[in-house]
Amino acid sequence: MTQLTQPRPNKNWLLIQFRKWHSWGGVFLSLFIMIVAFTGIMLNHKDLFFHSREERSAKADGPSGLLTSSTDLTALPITFANALNLARDHFGEGSLEKVELKDEHGWLIYKVVRGKGEELIIDARTGEMSTKYGIKVATSPAVAGLQASAAPVAGGPRRGLNWAKIVDDLHTGQLYGSYGRLLVDFTSIVIIGLTLSGLYLWGVPILRKKQSQQKKQAVQALASQSSPPVMVRPASGLPEAMRRPAQRREPVEPQPVETV
User: Which of 56, 142, 147, 215 has its CA 20 to 30 A from that of 6?
Assistant: First the structure.
């Protein structure tokens, strides 16, 4: 009766498993990795991708001068009190993280931050409100009356969509809320795992090849030390009969024997 033998485990099983994880992880998250990479490049060169030539020139020249240390804030068409009223109409009663007045490329704005990524942008000249992405916000009749009473001030470009902020939140995942941030975190963890698995797949074969060469050299050195040297006698020292090749002998046929 023959006994079944179990197959020997493959010593490269971990290397094969890492190669599978590395391949499928890269395929599954390739789209998100490309999004993170491209948005990172765009955020690193905001002036090139999101600002016009005039805006880049104005930024290089410094602030436009609309906001100085001697600016009378009470003389603005939309004061801080008006900005808070507009924010209360939009957010409702509640706590605010900060309210700031900015000179943004020749455009005075109030930035009201509630927290958790909620921001309200208010034009300090007209009272026009928009989200941090540049999307206009509908206002109530009372707020519309406040905006109409504000005297418009000439100057400053009209803002559209804030693509820099959109790309920024897309890069960090805030564009999709808490789920987007978790997805970006998971993508970052997978990128780290792909890096480590790639180093493993690259380094282990090199290490094993080096160990195999060292083992082979050690076996050869041991064999050369244990076996005695073989002396080979030159053919010129042999007798003539031994050096001469053997001649082929013809077979002798038997002769018939005559009987008396």
Answer: 215
